Predict the 3D structure of the following.
Amino acid sequence: MTANYHTHTWRCLHASGTERQYVERAIEGGLAVLGFSDHAPMPYPDGYVSGVRMEMDQLEDYVTTLLDLKREYKDEIELHIGLEAEYYPAYFEPLLRVLEQYPIEYLLLGQHFLGNEIGDAYSGAVTDDPARLERYCRQSCEALRTGCFSYFAHPDLIHFTGDAALYEGWMRRLCRCAREQGIPLEVNLLGIREGRHYPNPAFWRIAAEEGGAVILGADAHTPEAVCDTASLPKAEALLRGGGLTRLERLTLRRPTLARP
């Protein structure tokens, strides 16, 4: 890997280390590009706290900190400022209105919850419910069609244990949608590091048959994970002989509201 665009910070409440430590580890590991994409804040109703993302009033400090590091390390590494965001219909447009005030260069789609998160299902929970599988795929496709996302992080997060044929049908639709929208799918190295249910070989077989682009993402929650060379052989094995085009560098899409 020469680039990693999936990097978190302490603000999400489940990552550790300073931004400077991530940058210096990336330089030591030989990365040419490091993109920060911490979990985006959401303009939730007063009183609701997600617990897995920064608060709205932390966004300015996030951006300011990274802008300072971009200037300081400009001769050593290419840094980018992004966010990992869900597509929550009730909050997506208000979120974009906030983000337009900042130099956010890209969004990664990470559809961790269905609906709008509050009172709804976590996408990675074990389920054999066909309706939940369908909702995940439909909501993710709706997100991809907004044109606001630069790539789809851990697209195989949905942990469906029901009918394999049903899984294949919906995942084909999802992979086809990503290909049609020109959005790369991520092989998530965190899932490999921690032995999670993703990356799912069944998903990547389907993705290879459908074609399109793929990118590797460290999903780093510690500085040490930024350059995850130990997980690379397993990631590459998933893609070997497939019809996917592996990207080293990402074409960044700045998230903006659609204009008439």
Notes: The first helix runs from residue 19 to 28. The two ends are 39 Å apart (CA to CA). DSSP finds eight helices and ten strands in the chain. The longest strand covers residues 78-85.
